[in-house]
Amino acid sequence: MLLEQSSIPHILNKQRQFFATGKTKDIDFRIEQLKKLKRAISDYQEKIAAAVKADLNRPKFEAYFELTFFTEINDAIKKLKSWAKPRRVSTPIEQFPAGAKIYPEPFGIVLIIGAWNYPFQLVISPLLGAIAAGNCAIIKPSEIAVNTSKVIADLIANTFESNYIAAVTGGVEVSQKLLAEKFDYILFTGGTKVGKIVMEAAAKNLTPVTLELGGKSPCIVDDDIQLEYTAKRITWGKFINAGQTCVAPDYLLINKSVKSDLLEKIKQSIEEFYGKNPAESPDYCRIINQNQFNRLNDLLKDGKIVIGGETKSEERYISPTVIDGVSWDSAIMQEEIFGPILPVLEYENLDEAIALVNSRPKPLSLYFFSRNKQKQKQVLRETYSGNVCINDTVMQVGVTSLPFGGVGNSGIGSYHGKASFDTFSHYKSVLNKGLWLDLNWRYAPYKNKVNLIKNIIFR
Ligand code: NAD
Asked: Which among 136, 246, 285, 389 is annotated as catalytic?
């Protein structure tokens, strides 16, 4: 059964009732639900691949990028008992007799709103964290990836009772209806502008949020590199999913001395990956819709196209494109590109490149290519971003032991792996005192006790 938006308050009410039974707190129940999710994903893989093909012309290989979090489910199943265990912490002597523990507990009802570029992963991967932490959840996939959105709704309806996990489909209006309700936690993936709207709505109920947003992720390339591998890794990260990847390198900032050689190698890599005419390649995606195509098409007017630049509006095709001669004031440098267009800027020394990056809002990802360890350290020390990958692009997202998220304009909070469990858990602090002894150092009359409190404080 697909859920209508008019039933949002009803579903929420049912989920509240179900959460109140305490069933979702049971570890065996959670493990059972994770196993169900795992089976469902495995059963639906062909449908998911077909849906992302229909939405983005995704080749089957790249369709599986939607499922890279699959191993996280196994990991959660294996480790959940230990993650969910209360953790004992030390107590100071003046508390004696006492024990202190931290109890992870679910928030309650979680809302997960997703973006269209990795439409399956962006709602189902956080969902596994919400389940592992013992919450109920409502997920709203992006309406723009219309085919995948339907598959998600179908998978969820066939796998879970809606009083536990429900998928609600629809656009901005549905999203706003959901945000008008009170949730116990919201994880949102999308643009910075909408992120602010989500946070404002959440603030009305003091609902905590994780915001997974975007931004312009720089790729700094210094002179001490392995040219061929650098070119391949940049080309791959930029042009998978036709550049519609939140962590894709947005622009290149290249040391002047290697610029022309690197651009030549990038050109070769593009040809190696997608052939002489990428429009005919079975491995090259299309732009999600006409609006996005038109927006990107306008950005082609900046600078000088040195690679690609071909478009076919009726197919929403934009070839892998590299643009030289753009300035920091060009339109293409003002907003996240989110498409297969790579502008190139150059620098003479690394300090200058770092200062340029730091003059912009903090990006989601930052890439630095250099074999020089001192320079690697300098970039790590002097720049600010959600995450960093040295000598590669995008691959940091595949390390599930690294929490994934932005900072500043690129987001708040993180998830993936154990961080997903942490995100959807409230860590409740509990002090448990013994009743067999009562030290009276804290009680009035305080006469002669000032030295005692001084000793406790300044010990
Ligand atoms: P978006 O912000 O337009 O939409 C995201 C979701 O918000 C959709 O489900 C949509 O229905 C809903 N929405 C849109 N407008 C709304 C409004 N006014 N009020 C309430 N809800 C609204 O983002 P998008 O175009 O789907 O995705 C692209 C953006 O997402 C890019 O900026 C990209 O960098 C970012 N992104 C970030 C990550 C990450 O993990 N950090 C991953 C993927 C995409």
From this structure: 246
Same-domain pairing of 300 and 235:
yes
Here the CATH number for the domain that contains residue 344 is 3.40.309.10
User: Model confidence at 5, in pLDDT bands (50, 70, 90)?
Assistant: low
Domain presence at residue 437: no
Q: Which atom of ligand 1 is nearest to the CA of 170?
A: 11
Residues 339 and 424 in one domain: no
- How many CA atoms lie within 13 Å of 4's alpha carbon, on the beta-carbon side? 3
Residue 202 lies in a domain: yes
- Whether 150 and 54 map to the same domain: the answer is yes
The catalytic residue among 62, 66, 212, 336 is 212
Domain of 324?
A: 218-405
Give the distance (Å) from ligand 1 centre to CA of residue 327: 27
- Across the range 131-142, mean pLDDT stands at 98
pLDDT band at 353 (very low <50, low <70, confident <90, very high): very high
Q: What is the Cα–Cα distance from 340 to 234, expressed in whole angstroms?
A: 12
Distances (CA, A) of 341 to 38, 297, 304, 305, 323: 36, 10, 12, 10, 7
Count of the separate structural domains present in the chain = 2
- Please tell me whether the overall predicted TM-score, pTM, comes out greater than 0.70 for this model: yes
Is residue 264 annotated as part of the catalytic site, yes or no? no
Asked whether residue 457 is domain-assigned, the answer is: no
Length of the chain (residues): 459
Pocket of ligand 1 (CB under 6 A): 113-117, 122, 140, 142-144, 171-172, 175-176, 179, 189-191, 194, 197, 212-214, 246, 336, 338, 364, 406, 411
How many whole angstroms separate alpha carbon 374 and alpha carbon 155? 49
Which residues lie below 8 Å from residue 95, measured CB to CB, with a gap of 6+?
431, 433
Q: What is the pLDDT of residues 315-329, one digit of tens each?
A: 999 999 999 999 999
Domain assignment of residue 378, yes or no: yes
Average pLDDT over residues 429-449: 96
Is residue 212 among the annotated active site residues? Answer: yes
In angstroms, the Cα distances linking 127 to 36, 124, 344, 424 are: 13, 5, 37, 10
